[in-house]
Amino acid sequence: MTTDDHLASGAALNTLMREEQVRQDAATWPAASAGSTTQIGFWLVDNAAVTTEVNPAMGSMLGRDPKDLVGRSMFSFFDETDAQLLRQHLASAPDTPGGLDVTLNRPDGAGLHCLVNVTLITNLQGEQVGVVAMFSDLTMIDKAGQALRTSELVVNSVQDMVSLMDRASCYLLVNDAWCRALGLEREQVLGHRTSEVAPALSTPERITAFEECLTRGEPRVLRATVQLESVGERHLETTLTPFRSTAGDVVGVVSVSRDITDHEATRQALANSLENLRRTFNATTDGMFAYDADEASGRLLFANDRFFEMWQIPVELSGQTRRADVMEASRKLFADPDKEQQRIEAILALTGPHEDRLVLRDGRILLRHCVPLQDGNTTTRVWSFRDITLQERAIDALRASESQQRAVMEAFPGYVAVVDAKGVYAYVNRRLADLMGQAPETLIGRHMREVLGAA
Fold first, then answer.
1. Is the dihedral of CA 347, 353, 357, 361 positive or negative?
2. Which of 165, 173, 244, 349 is the most exposed place for a label (fewest CB within 10 A)?
C-alpha cells in the first residue's frame, strides 16, 4: 500500500469505529444497551485479504494479540467452507448487501459464531485499496435463541392451552395445544384479537376477568363450558396471569386453559353418588352421624335428617353443627346427664363396635350403636340411634301378660302341664310338680318319657 492508501485505510477505520460508537451510545444496539457482552470487531485487510490492522475487540474475539494478526491472511482463521464464502462475499461487495454468518477459529479450538459486514476502502483517487470487515459476536444472540427454542419446546410440550395476549387482547403467542383445540394455524391467530379468531373464548366472564387481570395486576381463575372446533363441548379451567415488562408494568396477559371435562364428569358423578347416598340415609328411620375423631374443630362428616329430628336439633343448623353441639343437645334429653357422659367416655375408649340401650328423659328408648373405623392414623366414628320405644313397650306388655297367665295357672286348683308337639314340657304348675316330687323348673324342657317313664 502507498502512504495515501494507508491514510485512507486508517481514516476509513476510524470513521467506522466512531460511527459504531455513536450507534452504541445511542442505544441502537439493543443487546449492548441491555448489558450484553456482544462484541464488535473491526478487521482491516488489503486487496489480497492480508491483515493490516484489527481493533482490540477483534483480537479478543480471535483469542490473539492484535499485533500477531498483522500480515496474516484473513482466510487462515476460518475453515475451508467459511473461507470460501468469505472470499465470495468480499469479491461481491458492495453489490451484495447484508451480512454473512461465519465461525472464527480460536487457538483453544472453540469456534466463535459471528456476523460479518464488509465496507470497501478507497484511496483519494477512488481506487479500492482494501476492506474493513465488521464482526459481530453472536454468542449471546445464539444463547438467547437457544433459550427461546427451549422455551418454545417446553410450552409446546404442555397439553394445556397456553397463549399470550397484549392489552388489546391480540395474540402474541399460542402453543400447539391451543392451535389443535381451536383448529387454527398459528399464522391465522397471531396479531388478531380473541373475538376475531376464537369467539368461543370471548365470553363476558372471560372479558371481565381479562380486564381485572390487567387493571389490578392480579391472577384470575374462571371455569366455563365452551364449544371448541376440533373436540366439541369441553369444560375449561382458565388461569389469567399478568405479563409484566422489565419495568414491572402489566403489558399483557398469559392465559393457561386446562381441559377439566373428565374431572368435571367425575366430580358430577361423585356429587350425584353422594346425593343418592344422602337420600338413602335420610330414608331410614335410624338417626346417624359420623365424625373424624382426630379433627380438632369437631366438624361432623355426616348427619342425616332423622338424627337432627331425634335429638331435637334444628335441621337448618346441620351445616354448622359440631360434636360439642350434639353433646349439648343430648344432655338436655339424658335422664342422668353426668352418668351418660361417663358411659360415652367409656364407649369412646373401646376399639371395637358397641351397642346398648339408652332411656331418655321423655320416655323414649333408643338402641345406640357405635362403630370406630380405622384408616391409617385416622379414626372415624359412626353413631346410629334406633327408636325402639314401641318395641320395648310391646315386649313389656307381653311379659306382663305372660306373668298374669302364669299367676292364673298357678292359682288353678288342678294339675296343669303344657307339652309341645314333641312331648317336651313347656310348663308345669307347682301342684303337678309337687305331685311328681320335683321343682317345676327341673321338669321344663324334659320329655314326658324321661319324667314318667315308658308306657
1. positive
2. 349
Q: Name the DSSP letter for residue 413.
A: S
Q: Which residue has the higher pLDDT, 377 or 9?
A: 377
CA 130 – CA 78 distance, rounded (Å): 19
171: amino acid identity, one letter: Y
- Which residue(s) pair with 87 in the sheet? none
Answer positive or negative: Cα dihedral of 19, 20, 24, 29.
Answer: positive
Tell which residue, 380, 358, 385, 349, has the closest CA to residue 369: 385
* Contact residues for 313 (Cβ-Cβ < 8 A; gap 6+): 307, 321, 325, 326, 329
Q: What pLDDT digit, counting tens, does each position of 312-350 carry?
A: 999 888 778 888 999 999 999 999 999 999 999 999 999
The strand pairing partners of 174, in sequence order, are 163
**pLDDT band at 3; cut points 50, 70, 90:** very low
Q: Are 434 and 443 in contact (CB under 8 A)?
A: no
Burial class (CB in 10 A: 0-12, 13-18, 19+), 265: exposed
How many angstroms separate the CA atoms of 441 and 422, rounded?
18
Q: How far apart are CA 327 and CA 314, in angstroms?
A: 14
Q: Residue 374 in contact with residue 292, Cβ under 8 Å?
A: no
The answer to whether 234 and 261 have CB atoms below 8 angstroms apart is yes
Q: Cell for 241?
A: 396471569
Kindly tell me if the per-residue pLDDT of 10 is higher than 50.
Answer: no
Distance from the Cα of residue 114 to its chain's centroid: 45
Could you tell me which residues are beta bridge partners of residue 374? 379
